[in-house]
Amino acid sequence: MFSPPLPVARARVSSAAEIERPNADPGGLEASLLQLIQGHQQTSLKLRDETEKAKKDAIRTAIRVSDLLVDIVNGGVQEGFINEKRIEFESRALAATVIRFAKQTHQWLAASHAINTAIKEIGDFENWMKTMEFDCRSINAAIRNIHQP
User: Which pTM value belongs to this model?
Assistant: First the structure.
């Protein structure tokens, strides 16, 4: 940031003849100096006001830029926070579903084990019945052999 160039002071340069006449017009020189000082003061005040105005504008612009940057960053953070909450909700729902499916699977396994046990028992009973039938036939054959003369 460069400050604007200072205005060039313009004053009448006295000639050598005027300098040699010190008492010729003392009020004119004094008035010129006063006018020059007043002009310088007015120019300085105007420059100071312009500088202050430029400084305030720069501060306002910097604040606006920082607010926009904060809004942009906060927008991304807010979106990330919303996504995080959504993911947490979905993961909790998924965990509940997994627990429900695990219980259901356990129930299915218990039911299939009960069915397998029942089938084994039926197979054992059928085998026992075949053994009993064979034993009965053997006993019947032995009794017939005994009663035959």
Answer: 0.42
What is the pLDDT confidence band of residue 14, given thresholds at 50, 70 and 90? Answer: low
Residues 85, 83: Cα–Cα separation, whole Å: 5
Residue whose entry in the numeric block shows the structure tokens 């007043």: 38
For the chain, state the CA radius of gyration.
57
Identify the CA nearest to 39 among candidates 4, 7, 3.
7
The strand ranges marked E within 39-146 are none
Residue range 15-24: average pLDDT? 48
Nearest of 41, 38, 51, 43 to residue 8 by alpha carbon? 43
Burial annotation 22-44 (CB, 10 A radius, 16+ → b, else e): eeeeeeeeeeeeeeeeeeeeeee
Residue 121 is classified by DSSP as: H
